[in-house]
Amino acid sequence: MKLTCQITCGPSLKSRLLTTPCFQKGFTLIEVLLVMAIFSIGILAIMTLHVTAIKSNAKARRIMMGAIIMGDQFEKLISADYQHPEPDPQEISALQKSGFRVEHTVSATLIPNIKKIDLTVSLDDPSGRNFALTYFKRNPD
After folding, report:
1. Do β-strands 130-138 and 114-123 pair in parallel, antiparallel, or remain unpaired?
2. How far apart are CA 58 and CA 131, in angstroms?
3. pLDDT class of 3 with cuts at 50, 70, 90
4. Alpha-carbon radius of gyration of the chain
5. Measured between alpha carbons, how far is residue 77 from residues 85, 134, 137 in Å?
6. Stretch 53-69: mean pLDDT
7. With contact defined as beta carbons under 8 Å apart, do 10 and 22 qualify?
8. Is the per-residue pLDDT at 97 higher than 80?
9. Of 40, 77, 131, 133, which is least packed with CB atoms within 10 Å of its CB?
10. What is the pTM of this model?
């Protein structure tokens, strides 16, 4: 018994005319390249969305940190002594090194035993986001 393998398209090659089409299963190189191009465009679009989401998340994190620092500094100024409501200078310099600028002013008002405290926290980035708060503190005595 002799096994032979012959690849043919329809009738045998000898009996087939040159004009008859040969139907083979599979993809052409152009079809594969076209699919790869469409797939790569889709992947690039998804990667662009991913990068945008990462940048937006980082910006939101910085804004949230600024709001937290604002609340923390506000609580410290409110709970400080009425005569000397000053925050810790070492803490302010540490915040400035981390990219936040904290400024405050304490001024007397026309009303006796009341001081005005203005607090501003600024982010040192291109967005230039500022958090400002004004509080009036009464002398507990």
Report:
1. antiparallel
2. 18
3. low
4. 37
5. 6, 11, 9
6. 88
7. yes
8. no
9. 40
10. 0.60
